[in-house]
Hints:
By secondary structure, the protein is α+β, with helices and mostly antiparallel strands. It has helices spanning 3-15, 26-45, 82-101, 115-127, 140-148, 210-217, 251-263, 268-271, 277-290; strands spanning 50-57, 133-137, 159-167, 171-172, 195-197, 220-224, 244-249. It has nine helices and seven strands, in the order H-H-E-H-H-E-H-E-E-E-H-E-E-H-H-H. The chain is globular, with a radius of gyration of 19 Å. The N and C termini lie far apart (44 Å).
Amino acid sequence: MNYYQISEYINKKYLKPLESSELNNLADFQTFHDELIKINVELIAKGFPVMPHYRGEQNYGWDIFPGIFRPPFSKEIDLSKAREIEKNGAEIFKKKVTEKYGENQLFKHSKEPYGKDWDLLFQAQHAGVKTNLIDLSTSSLSSAYFLSEPSDKHENSDGQFWGLLVPHDFILNETSDYEKSLYPNFNPYELDSSFVCNVPTYIDDIDQRTYQFRLFRQHGRLFASSNSDIDIPLNKKDFWKNMIVRVRVKAEAKKIIFGELKARGIDKERLILSQNDDVTKFIDGINNEMKKL
């Protein structure tokens, strides 16, 4: 069987039955996570290990697009230039952050040949700059927060919780002691395949880099799309559409989930860190300047 045939088997046997799962409280999220772990154990025995990743969203029915392809930003740019706009935005981010806060706020310890490009994109993404990366988390609870966070626009909307099984072969690290593909070896603006970036955390001086600290707190990983299907949502991409399951979460359950998370100390300050109006305007300015390409 090839990768696609394996993905069809996994979807039919394991993931389709989970679509009817009920997520009404944090205990349900733990049960859902346990189910994905059980699937992984079975797949390990079959020689196809995977790792569960998650994403929570406030409104049911959304596709999983990166920031550049989400409106209103996407309506104001030429999407055929998505990679050029992304690269331009990363350079503007680097310039503006260095001028305003100093270069210590940028990623350090990057690996050649393309590590600096990736690290800049990772940090820009978590600052709120529009990129072609997609946020994922290895923590179901962190993802539950983004699903349930109060929102005037989506307060009464059902939310959605995604579970994505990522094969180990498609999780790329920065370094490895084994013969394995590493993301710093690939130009992030010229990708011929999709994969998930497992971003390392250099904890000794992380307090100097707010946006890397945010990625660390969220147990974050980033999905990088190939150039050929960058405009296709993650949940509709070939292969990946079979490795993902979406569960509907009722609007009333979102409030219960948010309350339970708050009681555990999982809140905006913990996951996102404080961001004042000045910083918000700073990032908005970068996103607006990107559109001028």
